[in-house]
Amino acid sequence: MPTILGQNQYGKAENRVVKITRDGDTHHIKDLNVSVALSGDMSDVHLSGSNANCLPTDTTKNTVYAFAKEYGIESAEQFGIHLARHFVTSQEPIHRARIRIEEYAWERIETSEANSKFIGSDEVKHSFVRKGQETRVSEITYDGESWQVISGLKDLVVMNSTNSEFWGYVKDKYTTLQEAYDRILATQVSGRWRFNWTDDEQKMPHWERSYEQVRKHMLQAFAETYSLSLQQTLYQMGSRIINSRSEIDEVRFSLPNKHHFLVDLEPFGLKNDNEVYFAADRPYGLIEATILRDGVEPKIPVDMTNL
To answer: Which family does it belong to (predicted)?
Structure first.
């Protein structure tokens, strides 16, 4: 049976690069996990084994490290833009580059009061502890003419210990869940947002500030929404981002409902007045949705696991 070659790409995945910027005695860290995927005129390498159009994946790895030195790492998005532009414009057979980046944040270690007097500061300028709240992610795609920049985060665990209800839902003969009028609402946020930036260097977003602001609006919406469902909270989070950040046209969330069930303490002669819960890790409800600026077509993949 005849066959044809379909969509294909290649590159070097998960290049771990740590860039230290030394500002006198004060050091700054950028810690990235960079994956490069290239596509274009690659039929021969699949069909005949000819490597004439194939840039080695080892070269893409070396480029990541060389660019960390040559350009520095101002932000994950800016670094990805440098890489994507380089691969597409420097190699004629390469028509499209996709750069995916995870960023791991670090914060400075505070010193004891006695030691801070010795070093003249309440924090050591070269000692850090890895932040554990979330992992920042980004995907930059360039085809020689147009850009698509998607940023986001994953594994951000949040909880409201009250101001959440769940009742009035459909019930059938298999429904055992009791209606809740004061419950814990907790989730582990995975979110992606797409920028409307095209190619105007003058209008390029300030990537670091944008991330900080999106995260702030997301958390504020989660905290300030009196929730009748996780779906309602998700929509408020996305809407707050779209309405507050003009550089963003689309937000997609995947929110697992980290269920907390009241423990029955009556067998022990105790009343559980919304105080003691069993935290269940699985199975869990999974709520996913996209929030768009009016008139904008969705482009973030429904399945975000590979972003």
So the answer is: Belongs to the uricase family.
